[in-house]
Amino acid sequence: MNHQLSANEKQTWILFQEKIKEKVSPQQFTTWFVNLRLIKFNTKEVYINVPNSFCMEWLENNYMEVISTALSEVTNTNYKIQFVVDSKGFQEHTLSIQRGSHPSDEKNPGYINKNYSFDNFLVGPCNRLAHAAALAVAESPGTAYNPLFIHGPVGLGKTHLLQAIFLQLQQRSGGRNALYLPCESFVNHYISTIKTGDWDSFRNKYRQIDVLLIDDVHFLANSQSTREEFFHTFNALYTCQKQIVLSSDCPPEEIPTIEERLVSRFRWGLITRIDPPGFETSVAIIQRKTSLLNMEISYDVARYLAEHATSSIREIEGALTNISRYAAINENKIDLNFVKQVIRGFIKQKNYIGIEEIFNTVTKHFGVQLSQLHSKRKFKSITLPRQVAMYLARKLTNLSLEEIGGYMGGRDHTTVMHADEKIRKLRKQDQNISATLRKLETVLTKKQK
Fold first, then answer.
1. Which domains does the chain have, with CATH numbers?
2. pTM of the predicted structure, to 2 decimals
3. Cα(238)–Cα(287) distance, rounded to whole angstroms?
4. Predicted confidence (pLDDT) per residue in 393-431, tens digit
């Protein structure tokens, strides 16, 4: 079905993709939508090219309403959607460096962002350890930290680091065979293999490689049989001293339904967390991103975005992209007033709880003085409230470890990390502590509103 797309069709397809991105998660877009191609529009129908029959079946069963709504919103027309399976067959939605191949010969799928290099990753107190570990793995896979498990909230750079490792291996592969993919792709490949029965091909794909990088491994929580397969894949790679890198929105022990044997294996190497960036780091990130977009903004504009955007780097990127597009369309100078107009409505405002409010609530609940929290005394009656305050500051504020330590009487960031881990464990083990934390969080949330 050969058809040369018109400029209007191309623009409509771009707007359609942007609309889909608003309706699904980044992982879902990467897995199911990035490889779709527009074939043509007819009067009442739109023809869309899909990579394979499994993808077509999944879209029809799970995303037809999303696709239809997005298309209708963009075109103001209710088109009938016709999927067409690519007769040549797209490459499977993964990326592999074949042994002995040259990087320039590789076909990078759309979800690999070539800007996600180590050079473009801005290092701050919130991510320094994760960056150093990822760099060590890229330089010496299988020997530095194995496995490397990076966790943290959505949009803080986990995918960037995994793809940076991959891109560096691509440049310096030296005959290594590496594979990067979202966990959902692994799960979907497993499901499709149940249908085809081609287990040798499936296992060879994931076990005969040197480096396996899986994004959003918490997705394994949805499928027990897939976890069983991944368990054996992990063992096969680890036994052969092959590098494994995983990312997740939460630490291993907090992934729902995951078995202890997998949790223990994830802990064999290094587990590191990425935190929301502090204010100065956010400003630096914004300035770095604008340079990649060839945008010129003042420090006041960068400061305003850092203060009013959420702590998600992904949302900051989206805000800057929209600012750039609006400026190009309207031929506007990017000043503070223009930025305020553009971001109003599509970017969430930061709504973090102040650390002073946390201190007031904790001291009132436990009946201690603020000076006691800041002191070096180690009485249990003071240590517990102090650790609770640091735990709540980690959870409910946008402050870095160093900044929280500074508010807590000049304590080191490792003290804050220890307090956070201690209260997390107590919350699971002690029902009274768990109830206390829920009560404090409820009080703080109500005050925030």
1. 7-85 (3.30.300.180), 95-273 (3.40.50.300), 279-343 (1.10.8.60), 355-448 (1.10.1750.10)
2. 0.57
3. 40
4. 888 886 777 888 888 888 888 888 888 888 988 887 888
